[in-house]
Amino acid sequence: MAEKSLGLGYVPKRFRDGIGVVMRKPNKEDYSLPSNYRVINLLDVWGKSLERMVVERLNVWGKEGIGDEQWGGRKGRSSLEAVAELMMDWENGSGLGLLLCMDVKGGYENVGVGKMEERLEGLGVDEYLKRWITSFLRERRTKVKIGSREGEWTWLRGGTVQGSALSLMLFMFILGGVLEEVRREEIEGVGMVAVVDNVDFMVVGRSEREIEERVRRMEVRLRRGLEKWEVDVQGMKLEGLWVDKEGSRKGKEIRWLGEEIKWEEEVRVLGVWWQGDGGWESHVKNRLRCGNIRWEMMKKLIGRGGRGVGVEVLMEIFKMVVKKSMMYGMEVYWDGQKEMKERLQIWVNKRLRGILGAVRTTPIDAMLGEVGMRRVEYELDEAVEKWGRRLVRKGEEERFRGEWKKEMEEVGSWKLGWRGRVIRGALRYRLEGEKWDFETERGGKMTWRA
User: For residue 423, what pLDDT is reported?
Assistant: First the structure.
């Protein structure tokens, strides 16, 4: 069946029908608003298997079509590393930066057949795949299901849908065309990352005026790409945050993509919160809030406030759902801060006492040992070390052994910031048998520990 479908360049109609299940977006305040819901399409299983085959074949053109700035939907990449790229751009600047966040709303629904054909033609995709993808995008329909109620069949305006593996890649191909236009002119001090439909820029400079000029130059290229590939600007959510090592600042008002930027005291980028001075406090505060929400949800799902369920079951749910949500992204900021460690540990201790029924005077290490857990700082140390090892294993060793090592040897000083934290983790592992040693400014040998 797959061979015939691909050979003919035709997708059976049954594979183009979907049932849209309405789901709440998490952590929204007002669920009376339609925008706080997401429609996930349930598609034919055989059709999705066929999509997977096409995705594997399109990977040949993936790197060129998606672009190196795209971190979503790619093996060996994560959204945390995209956040770290932005952080490095800021840390390597003069201390003043402008973080601009662009969320492409309704991106899937706006992928047109004509533009998709143009993009695939430009990438040199094989003819039989182009024919099959054109058939995949045409004449799609869906019906919405809420509980046991189903609506009528509705023809879709665009050809891609959420819940489809191929739709994700095709959308990133179109967005890759936009990012390609921005890339055509290399603008000093402008960093850019994307995770599917979230595009974020870090623009650094010595002054607000210099940053504004760089934003204007980048905007010209960005507008050109958006217009060329018919990505709707009107539906975008735009946010901005001035980040200054000297302390939070409001900054001048800037118009970007024809709109006044909504200035925030804190901005969430791919699940990690940023604040005006680049500190960790905002992220910890919001992650503790997310952990509290998951904790209450866990108790409601279990019933009776969590009582009546075995400790082992409660602990597994706590570790896999509640604690993971709370700890997400902490390794981005972790550098041994005492106050950060204490706030996180107190939160964990309080929940453990609720699960174990322990009193306040119970020793922390005894309580942690009872459930097979360690103190928060050890977990964060390990997370940073694993991050460095993962970067090395996935092919970033040239970056570590070349650019970063040379820089540290020439400067002869301890490298601060995200790069320094992760390199400390990477250096705990030998790279092709080479042992690394660096010296501090005082000339003493450094023990490489996160």
Answer: 64
Give the pLDDT of residue 234: 59
pLDDT digits (tens, 9 = 90+) for 46-101: 999 999 999 999 999 988 899 888 988 777 778 888 898 898 888 888 889 999 99
Distant-in-sequence, close-in-space partners of 139: CB < 8 Å, separation ≥ 6: 13, 16, 155
What is the three-state SS of 201-230? EEEECCCHHHHHHHHHHHHHHHHHHHHHCC
Residue 222: C-alpha distances to residues 124, 185, 228, 289, 361 (Å): 24, 11, 10, 35, 59
Residues 237/200, Cβ–Cβ less than 8 Å: no
Can you give the pTM of this predicted structure?
Answer: 0.82
**158 phi, psi to nearest 5 deg:** -110, 170
Q: Which two tokens stand for residue 401?
A: 């052994």
DSSP secondary structure code for residue 335 in this structure: S
The CA–CA distances, whole Å, from 233 to 48, 173, 183 equal 31, 18, 19
pLDDT on residue 58? 93
Tokens of residue 57, six digits: 């074949």
Contacting residues for 68 by C-beta, under 8 A, at least 6 apart: none
- Please report how many Cα atoms fall inside a 13 Å half-sphere around the Cα of residue 301, on the Cβ side: 12
Partners of 237 in beta bridges: 103
Where helices occur in 397-447 by DSSP H, the ranges are: 397-398, 405-411, 417-426
CA distance linking residue 199 with residue 100, whole number of Å: 9
For the CA atoms of the chain, what is the radius of gyration? 24
Q: Which residues pair with 24 in a beta bridge?
A: 37
User: Which residues lie below 8 Å from residue 226, measured CB to CB, with a gap of 6+?
Assistant: 178, 233, 257
Q: Give the C-alpha distances (Å, rounded to integers) separating 380 from 69, 218, 331, 334, 450.
A: 27, 37, 6, 7, 9
Q: Which residues of the chain have pLDDT under 70?
A: 27, 106-110, 158, 233-235, 248-252, 262, 303-308, 388-450
CA separation for the pair 105, 32 (Å, rounded)? 19
